[in-house]
Amino acid sequence: MMNVDGSNPVRLTDDPDTDQEPTCAPGCSIITFYSNRTGNGEVWTMNTDGSNQQNLSQNPTFDCSPGISPDCTRLSIVTDRDGTDDIYLVYLDGSAPELLVGGPEGDEFQSSWSSDATRVAFDTDRDGNWEIYTVLVGGGGLQRLTNNPALDDLPVWRP
Questions:
Q1: Bridge partners (DSSP) listed for residue 45
Q2: For residues 69 and 113, is the Cβ–Cβ distance under 8 A?
Q3: pLDDT at 42
Q4: So where are the chain's domains?
Q5: Long-range pairs, 57-62, Cβ under 8 A, ≥24
Q6: Whole-structure pTM value
Q7: What is the 3-state secondary structure (H, E, C) of 88-129?
Q8: What is the pLDDT of residues 89-123, one digit of tens each?
Q9: What distance in Å separates the CA atoms of residue 90 and residue 78, rounded to the nearest whole number?
Q10: What are 13-65's pLDDT values in tens digits?
Q11: Is beta strand 42-47 parallel, antiparallel or unpaired with respect to 54-55?
Q12: Beta-bridge partner residues of 131
């Protein structure tokens, strides 16, 4: 973590394996991130000072790409627990995993919550090319935002 101007960098993790994809939301006291320190891709949480690092997903399948809700209560995560990369919603303690979007028609990846917490943006190859979509947090309302033969990915909501 560092100031916006790049000054005062502070190292938050110190593990020989990969720690990446950090996310946080304004007003949240936690940071979520992906790590393979258990030998399997998992979603982790920690306090904003790097303390209290906890394996959130603890799933035998691959979990990654956490996105935190604006109210700091839920995460969107990518998981392959159903055989394809799908997006699930879970609470900050990892409980109540709920499929948000996915299925056999392709892989979904990299999710980001809208500032009003009603929609999640994500990228998917469900149409044979990586495009950006949104979906209602309660499910349904699937909306394609891009339609381009180039790679469209890594959506991020901004107010």
A1: 32, 54
A2: yes
A3: 93
A4: 19-144
A5: 57/90, 57/94, 58/94
A6: 0.89
A7: EEEECCCCCCEEEECCCCCCEEEEEECCCCCEEEEEECCCCC
A8: 999 888 899 999 998 878 999 999 999 999 999 99
A9: 11
A10: 998 889 999 988 888 899 999 999 988 899 999 999 999 999 998 888 889 99
A11: antiparallel
A12: 124
- Which tokens is 20 given? 């990446």
Q: Domain 19-144 maps to which CATH number in 3.30.930.30, 1.10.3810.10, 1.10.10.10, 2.120.10.30?
A: 2.120.10.30
- Read off the amino acid at residue 120: V
One-letter amino acid of 95: S
Residue whose pair of structure tokens reads 């790049």 in the numeric block: 6
Residue 112, Cβ density class (10 Å: 0-12 exposed, 13-18 middle, ≥19 buried): buried
Residue 159 has pLDDT above 80, yes or no: no
